[in-house]
Structure formats: structure tokens, C-alpha cells
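Q: Please design a sequence for this.
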């Protein structure tokens, strides 16, 4: 194992070990501050982060607004207060060591307002901002206005080229690095494009070399690249260290910091991580963002898969093979399906999936009455947590809507991520994880139920393991 030499990140020499930011309070001030205190780069999530009361208890995010827009404004206030709170905690825990970054999603609700609010309210405490989930053109200008470095998250050289030419070339001095996130291996939302096959992963090395060549075109040969997604131990990446073809690199760890003493997830979640087997993490496209995402396969995801499986196309009038009448809804409105699909529907109805819900794609999905009630309630109670949401049809525009029907094949992402980050129900909530999460089970570092502190994990990573 080669020596792990420090590199300059956010204007300070630190270990090239970066904590990946995990949304909705899964990486917070305690975990990121501890990572920075160990000499690396800690990253707290700025996605609806937790606020604390005078006693240090988490303040529940309860919404009182009668409309989506009113609840959206409440959510923005929560997000800014929470981000400032976590920045202050991280700063205190870090004790002046390492660097502290905040992670945001460009497609989250009011991302620009939240960034301005947190960076203004926590001036001098945040050294960098990582941002993905979309094409964050304006992140450069926002960060530069506060003297903070920006780190776009991309999954291809083509994406970075577009960002640079459109906006980043105006603020090159504040580009602290580029995060290459492997779209097949990373946990949470992934950047798979329409031209990439989710079933045919490509190795990261040639893609990162391509990214470096693109960056070199723009005189960014000395700007670090963060390798994210699929990084478990550095021994497996030794040929990336001091590699002139790659230039300066750092390694971002998202999954391994979950199983640490400072990690805010529940003890039940931590125990579950040590039981996962290879194949337990499922790359799927159920997210209301429209992006692919990786999460642990559990009853929550199984229900979503089964729900989409109980789906038929329909027409309002008889067209071609769509000639079989089907009465749906309380009023028994007739639509037309194929005879074969009519047979499928009869089977589903006999099994108790009696409620037909329309999708934006002229299909019907069949669910049990209780699930239909839950879906409609969640859609009605939407608080506008995304810039646009396929599930509820909320959009951050004057109309407050995407203009399409709500999609019952998806789910309320704010509800489930808040529930799992503040509770222990692991079966009925979304549990994001990277594809390597199964390795907790057999890694000797975690033998006999050992849960390391962040500092112990960082020391372990420095050895190559």
C-alpha cells in the first residue's frame, strides 16, 4: 500500500479522505465534525437538516400550512435553520481540524434559497459545498459570493464540460474539486443518463481519466477529483494514488461512515447493515425525482415493484386491441384494455387489489384500498420538498404543479426519509445504501459487532483497509 499523502482541499492540506454527504440527517454535524477532527473532509447534509432546541433535542418538522405552497415555505425555514445548526455543531466538534463541507441536492426544494440562508447564517463555518442531483449551474456564483469552494457531483466528463462552459469558467478560483460519483455503485440518487444501461456497469477508471482530460483542457490539471461510489478500502485503489494520468485524487466514503459511533442512524439500522448479503442493494427508478437510486431491498421496495407490476395500459375509447370494457372507480367509469389485461385485472381484484389509480402514462395500477388511501393522503399532504415531484405533481413554479397527473407508482420521499432517519422501522421505509454495503458482513474490522468511532475508521482507512 502506497503512502497516503495529504492534498489541498478547500485551501487546506488534509487527508484525501472525504465523508460522503447523506441527506435527511444521515450525515450531520456530529459525524462530519468528527471526520474533520480526524484530519479529513467532513460533509454534513444540508437537505432538511435537523434543528435542535435549547436542550439539544431534535425539533420535529411538523407542517401547519393548509396549502402546498404554505407548507413549502415552512420546509424552507426548517432547512435553513437546520443547516445552520449542523454547521455550528460540525465546527465545534472539528475543533479547527480538517475541512467542513455541506452537501445539497440541486433538485431539492428551494436549493438556492437554502444555500444563501445557510452560508449567510453560518459564515466562516462551511469551507465547501458539494452539489449533485441535476445540473447545478448557479452553484459556482452562489459559493463564490460567500468565499466558499464548490464541488459539483458528476457522473461523466460530458456533464462537467456542459457545466464549465455554461457557468463554471466564470468562477475557476472557487472550484475546489469535482466529485465523480459512480452511477452504478453509489448509494442514494445516481446520475445514470438515458444512454447508459443500468444493467451494464462501466469501470470508473476510464471515465475518470476522461474527466481529467476534459478538466486539463480547461487548465484544471491540479484540481482534485473525488472518487465516490464503490470505495470501500484504499488497498483496492492503490494504483490511483500518485497516478499522473489521474492527477490529484481524493476518495469519498458514503456507506462505511454509516456504521460508526457518531453516525446518527438508529442502532437497528446499524445492526441491519451487518446482515446484508451481496445483491441486497437494489438499483431502481421509483424515486419521485425521476433519478435512479440505490437502496436496500426490503418490503418497502418490494411493494413498489409489485405495485408497478400490477399495471395495465388503457384507452378512453376502444382502440385496436384495447376493446375490453373495464369499469373503474366509485362511479364505474368505463375504460378499455386488452382482453389479456382484463384477465390480469380480474385476478388482482380477486386478490384484494381493488383500487385502480391512474398514472401520467395512461396506465392503471391496482392497489389495496388501504394503500390507495395512503397514497392519496401523502399526495395531498405534499410539502414541496423537491423542485418538482412526480409523485405529487408539485413543482416549484408559479402554478405549483408539473402539469401532469400525480404518479401513484412512486412515494413521498420526504416522509419516508424523515421516518427512517428518526426511527427504527427498517422494513417499511426507504433505506439508501451503496452497492458495497454487503461488505460489512465479512469485513474483519467489524467482527463481533464492533462499531468504530469515526477516528478509528479513518485510522483504519489510512492503512489501506
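A: Design:
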Amino acid at each position: 500500500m502506497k503512502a497516503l499523502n495529504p492534498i489541498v482541499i478547500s485551501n487546506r492540506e488534509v487527508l484525501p479522505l472525504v465523508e460522503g454527504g447523506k441527506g435527511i440527517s444521515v450525515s450531520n454535524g456530529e459525524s462530519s465534525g468528527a471526520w474533520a477532527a480526524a484530519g479529513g473532509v467532513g460533509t454534513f447534509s444540508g437537505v432538511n437538516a435537523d434543528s435542535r432546541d435549547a436542550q439539544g433535542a431534535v425539533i420535529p418538522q411538523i407542517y401547519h400550512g393548509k396549502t402546498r405552497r404554505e407548507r413549502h415555505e415552512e420546509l424552507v425555514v426548517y432547512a435553513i435553520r437546520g443547516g445552520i445548526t449542523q454547521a455550528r455543531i460540525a465546527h465545534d466538534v472539528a475543533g479547527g481540524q480538517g475541512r467542513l463541507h455541506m452537501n445539497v441536492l440541486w433538485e431539492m426544494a428551494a436549493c438556492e434559497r437554502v444555500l444563501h440562508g445557510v452560508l449567510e447564517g453560518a459564515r466562516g463555518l462551511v469551507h465547501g459545498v458539494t452539489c449533485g442531483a441535476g445540473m447545478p449551474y448557479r452553484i459556482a456564483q452562489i459559493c463564490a459570493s460567500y468565499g466558499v469552494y464548490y464541488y459539483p457531483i458528476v457522473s461523466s466528463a460530458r456533464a462537467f464540460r456542459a457545466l464549465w462552459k455554461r457557468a463554471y469558467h466564470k468562477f475557476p478560483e472557487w472550484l475546489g474539486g469535482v466529485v465523480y460519483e459512480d452511477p452504478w455503485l453509489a448509494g442514494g440518487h445516481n446520475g445514470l443518463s438515458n444512454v447508459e444501461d443500468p444493467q451494464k456497469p462501466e469501470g470508473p477508471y476510464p471515465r475518470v481519466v476522461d474527466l481529467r482530460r476534459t478538466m486539463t483542457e480547461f487548465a484544471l490539471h491540479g484540481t482534485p477529483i473525488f472518487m465516490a461510489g464503490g470505495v470501500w478500502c484504499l488497498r483496492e485503489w492503490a494504483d490511483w494514488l500518485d497516478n499522473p494520468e489521474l492527477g490529484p485524487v481524493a476518495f469519498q466514503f458514503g456507506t462505511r461512515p454509516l456504521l460508526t459511533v457518531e453516525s446518527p442512524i438508529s442502532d437497528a439500522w446499524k445492526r441491519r447493515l451487518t446482515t446484508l448479503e451481496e445483491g441486497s442493494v437494489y438499483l431502481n427508478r421509483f424515486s419521485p425525482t425521476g433519478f435512479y437510486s440505490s437502496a436496500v431491498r426490503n418490503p418497502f421496495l418490494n411493494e413498489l415493484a409489485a405495485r408497478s407490476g400490477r399495471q395495465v395500459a388503457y384507452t378512453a375509447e376502444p382502440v385496436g386491441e384495447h376493446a375490453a370494457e373495464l369499469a373503474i372507480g366509485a362511479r364505474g367509469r368505463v375504460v378499455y384494455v386488452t382482453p389479456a389485461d382484463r384477465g390480469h385485472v380480474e385476478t388482482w381484484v380477486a386478490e384484494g387489489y381493488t383500487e385502480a389509480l391512474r398514472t401520467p402514462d395512461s396506465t392503471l395500477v391496482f392497489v389495496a384500498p388501504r394503500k390507495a388511501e395512503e397514497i392519496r393522503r401523502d399526495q395531498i399532504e405534499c410539502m414541496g420538498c423537491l423542485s418538482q415531484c412526480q409523485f405529487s405533481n408539485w413543482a416549484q413554479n408559479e402554478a405549483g404543479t408539473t402539469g401532469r397527473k400525480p404518479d401513484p407508482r412512486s412515494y413521498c420521499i420526504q416522509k419516508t426519509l424523515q421516518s427512517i432517519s428518526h426511527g427504527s422501522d427498517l422494513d417499511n421505509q426507504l433505506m439508501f445504501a451503496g452497492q458495497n454495503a454487503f461488505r460489512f458482513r465479512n469485513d474483519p474490522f467489524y467482527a463481533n459487532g464492533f462499531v468504530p468511532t469515526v477516528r478509528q475508521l479513518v485510522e483504519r482507512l489510512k492503512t489501506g483497509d
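Q: Thanks. Anything notable?
A: Residues 299-421 form one domain. The mean pLDDT is 94.
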